[in-house]
Every structure is written in C-alpha cells, then in structure tokens.
Amino acid sequence: MFRPKVLAAVLNEANESSTSVETGGNNRGSSSGDSFTLLLNREGALLAASAPQNSATPNSMANQQPRVVSAIVSTVWALASQNIAALEADPLYVLIVDCEQARIAITSVGHGGLLLCMYCSTRGNPASQLPPLGMLKVKLDALKQHLDEPLSQIATTVA
Q1: Average pLDDT value over all residues in the chain
Q2: Are 74 and 92 in contact (CB under 8 A)?
Q3: CA angle (157 as vertex; 154, 159 as ends), nearest 5
Q4: How far is CA 37 from the centre of its chain?
Q5: Which residues have a Cβ under 8 Å from the Cβ of 36 and sit 6 or more positions away?
Q6: How many helices (H) and strands (E) does the chain have?
Q7: What is the 3-state secondary structure (H, E, C) of 72-126?
Q8: CATH code at 4-19+28-158
Q9: How far is the C-alpha of 83 from the C-alpha of 29, rounded, in Å?
Q10: Is the pLDDT reported for residue 96 higher than 50?
Q11: Alpha-carbon dihedral sign for residues 61, 33, 55, 47
Q12: Which candidate, 10, 27, 19, places its Cα nearest to that of 52?
C-alpha cells in the first residue's frame, strides 16, 4: 500500500542529510541556501517534494522553486535521453549537473516512469558549501534503491 506521508518522510530524510557538508574535524558546515528532493513524472509534474522548513528563500518563492526546477529537470532529462538514444548508447541512468551555485542529481525510478531529483544550492547563503558530487550520487542511488519497488507499482498509473 502506498503511503504519501512515508514518501514525504523518506524524501525529507534524504534532503536533510544531503544539505550539510563535513568541513573538517567535527564541525559541520551550514546548510545550503536552497535544497530539496523532488519526485516528478516525465512531463515535469511535481508529485512529491521535500524542502527544509528553514529555507532562506521567502515563502512565495519557496513554494514555486520546486515546481520550476521540476519542469526544467524533466526537459533536461528528456533532451539528454534523446541525445543518448541517437548515439545508440546505453540508456541514461543518472544525470548530474554541477553549476557554480548549485548541484542537481537526477535519476529515473519506478521502472523509468518517474524521475527523482536532488537539488542543492548556495543561492540563499553564499558562505555555505555544496555537498560533494560523490555524496550526492550515493544519496541519490540509495534513495532510488529504496523507492524503486514501491514506485514501480504506481508508476504506470501516474505516468
């Protein structure tokens, strides 16, 4: 049985643990300005999102940013998948985008019917650090493995 509250809790746990970075010793870095985990369909419709309550962005912007990111992420995933298919290469498994102020990791879940995205940005707090790319990929893989089977049961009805 699918439980939306459990899904939100799992996304939130992954989000919280991906927003802080070890900066040496036992000190923890401050959390990123904007960080959230998204579950969306291939058309960019946001199905579930988890963002920290203490986000540095204003409330009106915090409500819109995951929707905007999900629309962009679905388009980027579709274009990258088409380009890889045109090259007759293996299908796209994970896409990591590293920008100056943000890192985004995307993968498909639920037998390819849905997309899972982890987004971390320093936009709200320039002094914060982005998580290392490897840590972001490991967290995304662990979350994918955890959600793949339950979401595969509903992916055909959502997608």
Answers
A1: 78
A2: no
A3: 100
A4: 4
A5: 15, 49, 50, 51, 52, 65, 66, 69, 118, 119
A6: 3, 5
A7: HHHHHHHHHHHHHHHCCCCCCCEEEEECCCEEEEEEEECCCCEEEEEEEECCCCC
A8: 3.30.450.30
A9: 38
A10: yes
A11: positive
A12: 19
CA nearest neighbour of 15 among 46, 37, 34: 37
Q: Is the pLDDT of residue 35 over 80?
A: yes
Task: Using pLDDT thresholds of 50, 70 and 90, give the confidence band for residue 138.
Answer: very high
66 contacts 51 by C-beta, under 8 angstroms: yes
Identify the DSSP state of 56: S
Task: Say how far apart CA 47 and CA 110 lie, in whole Å.
Answer: 13
**Neighbouring C-beta atoms of residue 69, cutoff 10 Å:** 22
Closest CA to 151 of 39, 13, 16, 18: 39
Model confidence at 19: pLDDT above 70: no
pLDDT band with cut points at 50, 70 and 90 for residue 115 = very high
